[in-house]
Amino acid sequence: MATRGGGSLRAYVFARLLLALPMLFILLTVTFLLLRVAPGDPVTATLGGRVSDARADQIRRDLGLDRPLWRQYTSYLADVSHGDFGRAITTNRPLRTTIADRFPATLELTLAAMVVAIGVGVLVGALAARFRDTPIDVGGRLLGILLYAAPIFWLGIMLQLLFSIQLGWLPTGGRIAPFHEPRSITRLYLVDSLFTANWAAFGSALRYLTLPAVTLGLVIGGIFIRLVRVNMLQTLKSDYVEAARARGIGERRVLFNHAFRNALVPVVTIIGLQFALLLSGAVLTEATFTWPGIGLSLYQFLQNRDYTAVQGLVTFYALFVVGVSLLIDIASAWVDPRIRFQ
């Protein structure tokens, strides 16, 4: 049986890899074409009249924008396959350098927001299901709807007004206080602070991370509240839960040892799907809190109409999201064998 299970898992992984390839191809093609169908020339749109015509022509040649479209496309695919996402017109820096500098901040924010989202979603969703059709259930469902519908930038501004302006507890923006940066190991400030036992840096990084992580996490947590509640209600009606109750097992043990653990299995799959939403929400969150991640860079490039840089960062986002979704699918199939045969 183990051989069959392992073989089915290998077949599932192989099938997912095959499905990921055309998805990547479509994403890269759409990203490439969006830049080309935009009105105007990218160099002119970015630099306007700030450079001479000769200099603008030189930049076009450097970026390959003077070549036929099909050659630009094949060059684009070849560069991406080698980890080259192009060069920003406004900064004249390779985007791989920008990604290396800014992505750790985005990753740290996204992971912290996911912890907040899962914590809020699981706790409120489980309580709403446990006390179905009570004021707790109604309040939990209403909270889930309100969080999911709340614009990220509006929620962020409201939290800034309350905790930063009115109460003065937390900073309004940034990533860490000046002169508190820990020695760089992973470029994740909380992790590096723990590795180096730099508690001043850890406390500073945590204070700066709290508001943006809570803002982004609460919005995604609204989705998890509804998912956990629905799955818990279905699980509480299942035969094995009824059998456990019939054997005289206490309601607390039935809830946590039987219903709760099984209700979380479908949520694991949804986590991967929501990771893409977290990354897209990180753009607005980073812009609201001036968090120095890729989202803030993308926002700044959009403001400067640096479409080549936007193309490169969006391409990186697409590759990263597809990779994470693939890993989540494989992990879900490993945890729940039923997924392999769907």
CATH topology description of the largest domain: MetI-like fold
Helix content: over 70%
The CATH architecture of the largest domain can be given as: Orthogonal Bundle
Number of helices, counting only DSSP H or I runs of 4 residues or more: 14
Low-confidence stretches: 1-6
Reported for the largest beta sheet, the result is: none
Notes on the structure:
With 342 residues, the protein is an all-alpha fold. The protein folds into two domains: 1-90 and 304-319, no CATH class; 103-293, MetI-like fold. 77% of the residues lie in helices and 0% in strands. The protein has 14 helices and no strands. The chain has helices at 2-37, 42-47, 53-63, 69-81, 95-130, 135-149, 152-166, 189-195, 199-236, 239-246, 251-263, 265-289, 294-303, 307-335. Helix 6 packs across helix 9 (199-236). The longest helix has 38 residues, at 199-236. The two termini are 19 Å apart.
Write the layout of secondary structure elements.
Blueprint lengths: L1 H36 L4 H6 L5 H11 L5 H13 L13 H36 L4 H15 L2 H15 L22 H7 L3 H38 L2 H8 L4 H13 L1 H25 L4 H10 L3 H29 L7
Annotation keywords:
mainly alpha, MetI-like fold, 2 domains, 14 helices, 77% helix, globular
